Amino acid sequence: MHGPASPGWLLVALCAATGAYCLLRMRSSVREQRRAAGGEALMGFGMAVMAVPATVFTPPGWAWPLYAAVFGAAALHALWSARGSAHHLHHLVGAAAMVYMAVAMAAAPGAHHHGGAGVPLVTGPLLVYFTGYVLLSGARLVPGAVAAGPVTVAAGPGAVRWGDRPELARACRLSMGIGMVAMLLAL
What we know:
The protein is mainly alpha-helical. It has helices at 5-25, 31-50, 63-81, 87-107, 123-141, 166-186. It has one domain. The radius of gyration is 18 Å and the shape is globular.
């Protein structure tokens, strides 16, 4: 991505950590959670690779079309999976955004080129979507009501494993949404 190196490395760290956590979530006993976590792990690691500052590493010319093909396949998979779950529509938009960014980077490697003044036609709606997604995801993380008593965490066999906790999955999705906004702004 274009832009300063320090924020780029922070974005790499955020996306890689999110991808690693999503890999751990793939060990869940819930089938749908495993499937969603796999797509999110691909997105997290893909975003981490794409966010490496261009001053440090400039990918070869063949990398961007390969990147677009991988995320194009992920978009098709998300489209197919969207039959059963609306959450996969978000994966579809995310994968399509990754394809768009890969194509944009292939067309103008190492330069800020938008083809005119202002925000490009596709970048604007993607920024609106992901900004809305980040705000909604952040609002969902805020506790609705304070518990009447002390909160206890069960440690027995029926306890929810840390990889199956819904608030951690939401935080994971929130961090990837923030990363996507940052990457679209840097495009």
